[in-house]
Amino acid sequence: MPTRLLLGVEMRLIRSCRYRFLFVARLQQQRTFIQMRTVLKVVDNSGAKKVMCIQALMAIKKGARLGDTIVASVKEAHPNGKVKKGKVVYGVVVRAAMQRGRCDGSEVKFDDNAVVLVDKQGQPIGTRVFGPVPHELRKKKHVKILSLAEHIA
Q1: What helix, strand, coil percent values describe the chain, rounded to 5?
Q2: Which H or E element spans position 68?
């Protein structure tokens, strides 16, 4: 069966019983950059639960990837945390659903998009980082986040 990938939809050409051809489309999940209005999970104990990306800083034009800094707005927060709902914060992307190639030829991608909140100097607001964090953050000079992480992938 010939297949063709077209704009995130896989088209299959299937021959029916009377030699007619049918196109069957199967939707594939498109993994893209973290861009404006992307909702990310916060994986530290700063008090925020979810943030929405406003702008990707120091990133390529399309959006942010692993290790890039973003400006975000807090959408959900714990009631007695350091960060309140509606506050504009900086964050470092520590997990991204879009795949990223490594030097050895392997690729790393995660199930969710996650961020660690930082201040303007790049120091983390929280004191713990939950879940796996890729070692590519070392190249981006986020060593403090790596030292707080419980698992380095």
Answers
A1: 5, 50, 45
A2: none
What residues contact 104, with CB distance under 8 A and at least 6 apart? none
Q: Read off the pTM.
A: 0.75
Can you tell me the mean pLDDT for 38-46? 94
Q: Which candidate, 16, 74, 18, places its Cα nearest to that of 41? A: 74
User: Is pLDDT of 153 > 90?
Assistant: no
Q: Where are the beta strands (DSSP E) in the chain?
A: 3-6, 9-15, 21-27, 39-42, 48-57, 69-77, 88-95, 100-101, 107-108, 114-118, 129-133, 149-152
Q: Identify whether the C-beta of residue 48 lies closer than 8 Å to the C-beta of residue 72.
A: no
The backbone torsions φ and ψ at residue 100, rounded to the nearest 5 degrees and listed phi first, read: -135, 130
How many residues are given for the chain?
A: 153
